[in-house]
């Protein structure tokens, strides 16, 4: 499943990322934040407007806001 479809507060591990679906600068920023294959991630909140954008995801002790288009580029496996 993709990260945007992961149920709230369910832990998952990123198994694949389609970096070609993202702008190079955005991909570098996400990697710098530790969002890459093997990272454990949890969706903690979804926005209420415009298609539930953005998503608030927890990676480690950090909370990061992701656009839904970025989350769709990430395949995850629930833990």
UniProtKB/TrEMBL annotation:
Taxonomic lineage: Bacteria, Pseudomonadati, Pseudomonadota, Alphaproteobacteria, Sphingomonadales
Positions of the Ferrous iron transporter FeoA-like domain: 1-78
Source species of the chain: Novosphingobium umbonatum
Pfam family, one: FeoA
Protein name per its UniProtKB record: Ferrous iron transport protein A
UniProt keywords, alphabetically: Iron
GO terms assigned for molecular function: transition metal ion binding
UniProt superkingdom: Bacteria
Family annotation (SUPFAM superfamilies): C-terminal domain of transcriptional repressors
């Amino acid at each position: 499943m993709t990260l945007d479809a992961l149920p709230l507060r369910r832990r998952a591990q990123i198994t694949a990322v389609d970096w070609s679906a993202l702008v190079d600068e955005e991909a570098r920023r996400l990697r710098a934040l530790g969002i890459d294959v093997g990272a454990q991630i949890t969706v903690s909140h979804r926005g209420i407007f415009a298609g539930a954008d953005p998503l608030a995801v927890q990676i480690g002790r950090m909370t990061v806001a992701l656009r839904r288009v970025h989350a769709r580029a990430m395949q995850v496996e629930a833990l």
